[in-house]
Amino acid sequence: MNMNRNGQLSFSDDPLLIGINEVYQLIEEGNFSDTIGKLDKLMDLNPDYPGLAECYRTAKFWVNRSGELSGLEKGRQTADFLMREWESYKDYASKNNMIDSTAYTCVMKNIFFNASEHYKIAFQTQESITDNFDLLVNLGTCFLILGEYKPSIETLEYARSSNRNDAKLNSLLGEAYFHIDEISRGLLFFKEAFFINPSDIDLNILKSEPVQSLIRVTKERKPECRDVREWIPVFGFIEDIFYARRNINSQQVETIKREIYSLEKNCRDMSKEKIPESNIVPRLINKYIWMLDYFRFQNYNYESISEIRNRLVVLDKDIFETFFKENEIK
Fold it and tell me: Is residue 194 within 8 Å of 232, Cβ to Cβ?
């Protein structure tokens, strides 16, 4: 051991600390073969040194895919392969408690940077506009995960110009706008996304506090729910987190009314045992919340407000009876 003049270990001279920092750099560069060679030497010194096992598992996972990767064409083929294998690695990392490790963070930067570069190539050479939508969303996702929020917004807004009703896309825009401090715009995109289709939203990507807070609230208030995503918009309203709103046109109003009618019919036809296993109640509540806002702020109608309030209490008495007693909504 190297000691300083006070007789203490000098960490800057610790060969394992220096070595593992070099390993992290190699992983971030995507040099997985050299990573394994370096790790073999470090593990001979101390196989239990913190971080070595996670680095070794990570490097082995990706070096085992290097042969197949090298045979792929540049562009979408390579980018899609990286994204698919990332999902496999994420599952592997989760099972081995590696999600919070430095190795995970380093390889994430490498994989998403490479994927973004290949998606750029794919987009530049792609002629199909329909196909470009998926390319743009994937590219915007890569930018978002890398913390490149403005390029993410530019890419995703371009994609949105051809499809405004994609839940995943809207949720990604909400995340990106929130991180550049355009809070209201971000919250509105989140609200829109969870209205369109909660099950299309990837919560693993959404790290912003509003969404994380609603995940915690939902798990606390609805521990029995099968999918927290379905209840997030409900508690977004209850907790006044999704406070941003926009006006909706008459066509959208009629669409929501038809959706409510259809959901109500399905709810009536469904057995009481099946209802908790489905997403029908939170989705119905979410539709009613939008209509409640419409009749409160855009086209005031006391009778409609009262009817919706009463129906919400019937749908979930535990939530809404207390809520309406504590909040003056009229």
Answer: yes
> Could you report how far apart the first and last alpha carbons of the chain are, in Å?
73
Nearest to 180 by CA among 158, 208, 161, 201: 208
Q: Among candidates 277, 287, 330, 279, which has minimal Cα distance to 312?
A: 287
pTM (2 d.p.): 0.85
Residue 27, both tokens: 């992983």
Sort residue 186 into left (φ over 0), alpha (ψ -120 to 50) or beta: alpha
Radius of gyration of the chain (CA): 25
Q: Supply 275's token pair.
A: 């209802």
Q: Would the CA dihedral through 194, 196, 198, 203 be positive or negative? A: negative
Amino acid, single-letter form, for residue 232: I
pLDDT tens readout for residues 277-322: 899 999 999 999 999 999 999 999 999 999 999 999 999 999 999 9
